[in-house]
Amino acid sequence: MTQPHPTDARTPEQPVEPARPTPRSAPASRRAVFGGVLGVGVGVPLVAACGSGSDSSSSGSGDSSGGSTTSAGPITTTSKVPVGGGVILAGEKVVVTQPTEGEFKAFTAVCPHQQCLVTSIKDEEIDCSCHGSKFSITDGSVIDGPADQPLSEMTVSVEGEDISVS
Asked: Would you call 8 helix, strand, or coil by DSSP?
């Protein structure tokens, strides 16, 4: 019989336990990595679609001039707002319309359904392409849902050619 080594602390009666592997996290599978990348690739354009930041109008010309949504200064001019249509000022998040000659209205450009910016004005309707809601250029009321609340109306001031809102 062999003698135990002096550094061996076991007594001859103790069983020897096999070494346990140290826990390691499993490497990410290609499927998991691809799914995560695909999710980001799909999610970013969807988020961007809800607030495109582009200006649109029924005449095809937007107004991206600076300014604010308060009465501190003009945000557009009367010549840029077509009769029976309007302009979307995405930077200011404001829609300015002219339902009839010389009558100007302003509404928030944020759709109350899921806070996307409205995207176009055609056929006397303000359209939100996120989910298909349509609003009146006259009073911001809902023409077609899924939105169930109107666009919030703002106060319009016209001085000469300059339009300001508050």
From this structure: coil
User: Rounded to 5 degrees, what angle do the CA atoms 163, 94, 100 make?
Assistant: 55
Beta bridge partners of 66: none
**Tens-digit pLDDT profile for residues 34-93:** 555 445 454 444 444 443 333 333 333 333 333 334 446 889 999 999 999 999 999 899
Q: Which fold has domain 76-165?
A: Rieske Iron-sulfur Protein (2.102.10)
pTM of model > 0.85:
no
- 141 contacts 155 by C-beta, under 8 angstroms: no
Q: Is 89 exposed, middle or buried (0-12, 13-18, 19+ CB in 10 A)?
A: buried
E strand intervals along 6-122: 76-77, 85-89, 94-100, 103-108, 120-122
Cα 61 from Cα 13, distance rounded (Å): 92
